[in-house]
Amino acid sequence: MRGIGKVVVVLLILTIATFFFFYTRAIKPKRFEPTVAPTAGLLDGPWRPDALDAFFGRHLTPDGRFDFAGVRAAPTSEAELDAYLAACAAVSPTSHPEKFSDPTVAIAYWLRAFDAMSVKTVLLAGPIDDLLDIPVTYSVVEGAGFFRGRSFVIGGKGTTLHGIITQSLPKSTRDPRVILALGGPAKFLLPYAPTIPVGAAQEVWLAARSRAFFDAPGAVTVRGDVVSAPAWLFWRDEWFKRGAGLDASIDDVFAAAAAFAAPERRADLTPKPGRIFAPQPPDFRLR
């Protein structure tokens, strides 16, 4: 038995080592390097959070879909996006905090950086209908090509979309509403926002976006004791655990999330005896 036990241990160690070898290769991102100059005037003085609003205003449909084909057909539009990313490469709230004396501007910066990086990630992937079509070698994580497969220089350091969510944004705020307000190209996120307000208006915007997250058609469904909720809440539960402790249960997570839903939605998200919360299958198709 001792010999068999040693073999089992060795095989287990090899299995774990092999998993991490392929996992780290799967999430080794490709670096995007802007080839255009930063947006004119954006690096001078305080950061202007509205610098990409005109770009999004031209390429968003009324229902919040992004016109990727239209941008591909207009090289000057993509160059405008690249110029913004070049500015972000030089300046961020981490690298130049003096440019972000207003904390709401820092939050707007990271949300818009996520927007810009996500659009560029899809454009670089070529015409696709689904974020799962973005390839990543040896992927073991659903959506890894989108969230981890492309790296951008932000404030002098490389990061990914996953890094924005898990590292950069949490340094600016612990408000879970920012994760609910996040816009993106696929249906498990809210549509991109034409503008991200700062100052007192940001509070109103975050509240409205959070309610919209739960109000989207099919976002929350109740069948008997089973509540089906967006998978995004389960993926990003650490944002809600901060208020209830990192060892919080899924009921604690949903109790915290319910506070940001519209009053008529809160009853569906509030834990009660026998109630089970289950993630909906994530829809990676472009909206």
What does this protein structure show overall?
- The protein has 287 residues and is mainly alpha-helical.
- The chain is built from 13 helices and six strands.
- It has two domains: 187 residues, no CATH class; 65 residues, no CATH class.
- The strands form two sheets. It has a three-stranded mixed β-sheet. Strands 4-5-6 form a three-stranded mixed β-sheet.
- Helix 4 packs across helix 5.
- About 3% of the residues have low confidence.
Brief summary:
By secondary structure, the chain is mostly helical. It has 2 domains: about 30-215, no CATH class; about 215-280, no CATH class. It contains 13 helices and 6 strands.
Secondary-structure map:
Layout (H helix, E strand, L loop, with lengths): L1 H25 L3 E3 L20 H7 L8 H5 L2 H16 L12 H23 L18 H4 L2 E5 L2 E3 L1 H12 L4 H5 L18 H16 L5 E3 L2 E4 L1 H5 L2 H7 L5 H9 L4 H7 L6 E4 L8
Parallel strand pairs: 1-2, 5-6
Antiparallel strand pairs: 2-3, 4-5
